[in-house]
Every structure is written in structure tokens, then in C-alpha cells.
């Protein structure tokens, strides 16, 4: 594994930890700042809003800058946001700091994906993206539980000091492990990045991300009541079960990267189909403790099986502007988080049962399959002209889209 991928994974680990740890620290934060739990929940939304706004804006603003310098600057912003969170004197300050912390999230993964694919052979591009995302999935296994434990025993401010330290380590790794000449500023600049977003295939790929990961978050947002009310687990067991989700996500992420390098579209369609099947079986799987634990692992595997193929597909469709498009894919992921949770909540509020959010998620997964099918039909229709177009993948040899599709089957 190129050491540059290790630097990217360290940054992803820090970002994944700070994104999800707030959910486990809400009671401590609410008590310390004398606010209600619903008000404290806005801190989660503030981060997500920062991701959605920051992903396209920062990617566009840094379009002509060297990629290593961009990644370093984004992590400096990340450290500043978390340090300000640790120093927050009141809820409004913390709300602003969480928004600031979310701004570099999407751009880091977007630009990082371009760098990752540039330091490996063309046939290993999807695997390189999955190795970067490995930091994010491991954060769910180790980073978030450890940070939550620190916050509960040493105070929530100590957690954000620790996350800031991870960011500093990431900055050093980026400067030392990513070669200065690995990837320069894109030749197309801002105009090329913006032109890429005019492509229908790019928007169809982003739509697949919203629907596909919306399916995940429709169920995952309400996994705790499913496990306690339907499966009979004690509240104290939920943390361990969520770590199992992280294990599944890690397996799915690595498997998706490897499979996508051989057959991108079949991996995407297979992942979405498997996700729909698992979600549809949730009402049955949640009846016993052992099958519920299995369902949590399978949910992580099937959902993250689609992560690498979706990111790579967005980058290839946005040939002239992969940084902005892949950053937009991270914004789409967070829209899926918010939208999926909302739709799952509607099913729950309608009185359809504690496992109904999973069935709503299955419906979103079917929608994702439909969008992916339309994207495939558009590509087939454009195939005669696609052979004359070049796909630029940030420092990798140029190949036509028809050649790429042929190689992947």
C-alpha cells in the first residue's frame, strides 16, 4: 500500500470520529451547557450542514491549488473547528464550531479520492479509494467508542482535544507521506470542475448515492430501538452491536473496492440489490438476538459495498472535474443521511412498527437501483460517442470510457 494512502486514511479516521462521536456525547454536552437534548441534537445537524455546504464550495475554491496543499489546508481547518469545539463557552459557540468542523469533510474525501487514484496503477483505483475510506469505517469500530468513553469519563471537551490531536498527526502524515509531485492542480481549473457537473451521468451517479445511502440511514438512524424493543437487547449492549456494524462496513468497503476494479457496475448493482434484500428481511431478523446481530453486520457489508464503485463512477463521469464531483458525492452522502432518517421517521411515526424504517429503506434502495439502471441506459445510448471522449483520472493513464467499461465487464 502506498504510504500516501496511509496519510489519507489517518485523516479519514479523524473525520469519521468527530462526525459520529457527538451522537454518543449528547447527554454530557446538554447537561454541561444547560440545554435540552433536542437542542443538543442540532449540533449533529450543524456538522452535516457544514459538509453539504463546504464540499462543493471548498473543492471549487481550491481547484487550481496543488492537491497536497489543499488536503493540508483542509485538515488545518478541521483541527481549528475541533479545537474551538473544545473551548466552546456556550451552545451557540459550539454550534458554530461544529459547522466549521464539517466544512472540510466532503472536500477532503473528494480531493483525497483523486490523490488516492493517482498513486496506484489504473487497475487498482477502486481499491485505493476503499483504503482511504478504511479510516472512516475503522473510526466506527474503534475511534467513536474510544472517544465516547473519554468524553464520559474526562468530559466531552477532552474528546475534541483528542480529535484535534488526530488532526495534527494527519497534517504531519500528509506533508511527509504524499509526494509533492504526486498530483498537481487540475489543468482544467474551476471552469473544468464546474463544466463536469453539467453532465447527466454525474447527476445520475449522485442520485444513486442519495437513494442508496438514504436506504441505509433510514434503518440505521433507528437501529437502537429496533435492537432494544424488537430484539430484546439491553441498552448497554447497543454500543457493542454498533461496533459490529463498523466491522461489517469495513468488510463491505474493502470487498467493494476489490470487486469494483474488476467489474464496477455489477458490484454496484449487486450491492444495492443485497442491501434491499437485507432491509426487507429486517422484520424477521430482528425477532431474535443472534439474527439481529447478524442483520447489523450484513447491513454494514451491503451498504458499504457500494461506496467505492459510486465514488469511482462519479469521478469517471466527471472526467474534467473529478475533485468537485467527488466532493459533491460526499454532500450527497450527507443528504442521504438527513433524508433517510426523515423518511424512516415518517414510517415510525405512522405507527407501522419499530422495524418499519428498514422497510422504508428497502423502498429507497429500490429507487437507487432504478436510478442506477437509468444511468446504465444513458451510458449504453451514449456508447458510440463515448469512445471518442477521454476519461482523466488525476495522473493515471488516459483511457476512453468505453475501454474502462469493457475492462470492468
From TrEMBL:
Its main location: membrane. Keywords: Cell membrane, Membrane, Transmembrane, Transmembrane helix. The chain crosses the membrane at residues 41-62, 69-87, 99-119, 131-150, 156-178, 199-223, 238-256, 268-286, 292-312, 332-352, 358-378. Residues 4-380 form the Major facilitator superfamily (MFS) profile domain. It is found in: Cell membrane. SUPFAM superfamilies: MFS general substrate transporter. It is a multi-pass membrane protein. This is MFS transporter. The lineage of its organism: Bacteria, Bacillati, Actinomycetota, Actinomycetes, Kitasatosporales.
Amino acid at each position: 500500500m502506498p504510504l500516501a494512502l496511509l496519510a489519507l486514511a489517518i485523516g479519514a479516521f479523524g473525520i469519521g470520529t468527530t462526525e459520529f462521536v457527538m451522537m454518543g456525547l449528547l447527554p454530557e454536552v446538554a447537561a454541561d451547557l444547560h440545554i435540552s437534548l433536542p437542542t443538543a441534537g442540532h449540533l449533529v445537524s450543524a456538522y452535516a450542514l457544514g459538509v453539504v455546504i463546504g464540499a462543493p464550495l471548498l473543492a471549487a475554491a481550491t481547484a487550481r491549488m496543488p492537491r497536497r496543499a489543499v488536503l493540508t489546508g483542509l485538515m488545518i481547518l478541521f483541527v481549528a473547528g475541533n479545537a474551538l469545539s473544545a473551548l466552546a463557552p456556550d451552545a451557540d459557540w459550539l454550534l458554530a464550531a461544529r459547522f466549521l468542523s464539517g466544512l472540510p469533510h466532503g472536500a477532503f474525501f473528494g480531493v483525497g479520492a483523486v490523490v488516492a487514484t493517482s498513486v496506484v496503477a489504473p487497475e487498482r483505483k477502486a481499491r485505493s479509494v476503499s483504503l482511504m475510506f478504511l479510516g472512516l469505517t475503522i473510526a466506527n469500530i474503534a475511534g467513536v467508542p474510544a472517544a465516547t468513553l473519554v468524553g464520559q469519563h474526562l468530559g466531552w471537551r477532552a474528546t475534541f482535544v483528542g480529535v484535534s490531536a488526530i488532526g495534527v498527526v494527519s497534517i504531519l502524515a500528509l506533508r511527509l507521506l504524499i509526494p509533492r509531485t504526486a498530483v498537481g492542480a487540475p489543468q482544467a481549473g474551476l471552469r473544468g470542475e464546474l463544466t463536469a457537473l453539467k453532465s447527466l451521468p454525474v447527476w445520475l451517479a449522485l442520485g444513486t448515492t442519495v437513494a442508496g445511502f438514504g436506504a441505509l440511514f433510514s434503518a440505521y438512524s433507528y437501529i437502537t430501538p429496533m435492537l432494544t424493543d424488537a430484539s430484546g437487547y439491553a441498552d448497554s449492549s447497543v454500543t457493542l452491536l454498533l461496533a459490529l456494524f463498523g466491522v461489517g462496513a469495513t468488510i463491505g468497503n474493502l470487498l467493494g473496492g476489490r470487486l469494483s476494479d474488476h467489474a464496477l457496475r455489477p458490484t454496484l448493482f449487486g450491492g444495492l440489490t443485497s442491501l434491499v434484500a437485507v432491509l426487507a428481511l429486517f422484520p424477521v431478523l430482528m425477532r431474535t438476538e443472534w439474527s439481529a446481530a447478524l442483520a447489523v453486520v450484513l447491513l454494514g457489508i451491503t451498504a458499504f459495498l457500494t461506496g467505492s464503485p459510486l465514488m469511482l463512477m462519479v469521478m469517471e463521469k466527471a472526467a474534467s472535474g473529478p475533485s468537485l464531483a467527488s466532493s459533491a458525492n460526499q454532500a450527497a452522502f450527507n443528504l442521504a443521511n438527513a433524508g433517510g432518517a426523515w423518511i424512516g421517521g415518517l414510517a415510525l411515526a405512522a405507527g407501522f412498527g419499530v422495524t418499519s424504517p428498514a422497510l422504508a429503506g428497502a423502498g429507497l434502495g429500490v429507487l437507487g437501483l432504478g436510478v442506477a439502471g437509468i444511468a446504465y441506459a444513458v451510458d449504453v445510448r451514449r456508447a458510440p460517442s463515448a469512445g471518442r471522449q477521454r476519461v482523466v483520472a488525476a495522473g493515471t493513464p488516459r483511457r476512453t470510457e468505453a475501454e474502462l467499461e469493457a475492462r470492468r465487464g
